[in-house]
Amino acid sequence: MTDQLRIGIVAIQGDYEAHAKALARAGEHATFVRTPEDLEGLVGVILPGGESTTHLKVMKEEGLFDALREFSAKGGALFGTCAGAIMLAREVHGPNQESLGLLDVSVLRNGYGRQVASSVHEGKTKLSDAPVEMVFIRAPIIEKIGSGVTVLAEDAGHPVLVREGKILASTFHPELSDDATIHKYFIEIATGKAK
Question: Is 108 helix (H, G, I), strand (E, B) or coil?
């Protein structure tokens, strides 16, 4: 879509390489973000899965926590998957945890149970007529959403893909699927082309 590095991926933990491959399938180059300086010139940033407490600790140590809040305040788009969705949430339970607080949702960490309770199935989204593969790994549950949040997909009665303005979050791992629909949608959000 572009010949510039425009989308960054926080490369602290989690499968950020899989996100880079998903962006490549969507026609976009990616750059890895480890310091606030790495945010320069980007229009969007992905916060991948992993362990949210580790993300929080390293982000604070590296100055990325406040830098990402500022990036969002200046109009940058953010996309959090699994632990990344936890980091974006306004409220985190199970146990309570600090977060960026940028997305008006309340989440329950490891809502579906331990890693052995992980699952893969297909589900409908509002992004296309074709179902997408949803890979849940120790996924959080979105318990409540604010009035400005749009639910783009549900699973078992819970929102699993949501958007508020230029913030997108999924409780599953779209980067582990060959389908680039959700990454393409994030690129559209980041470049101002999404409805």
Answer: strand
Active-site entry in 19, 55, 164, 175: 175
CA distance 100 to 188: 23
Q: Determine if the peptide bond prior to 95 is cis (ω within 30°).
A: yes
3-state SS, residue 176? helix
Q: At what angle do helices 52-62 and 64-73 cross, to 10 degrees?
A: 90
CA dihedral for 111, 112, 114, 120, sign (positive or negative): negative
Return the bridge partners of 79, or none: 46, 168
**pLDDT tens-place string over residues 84-127:** 999 999 999 988 999 999 999 999 987 665 554 578 889 999 99
Q: Find the catalytic residue in 55, 82, 164, 188.
A: 82
pTM: 0.93
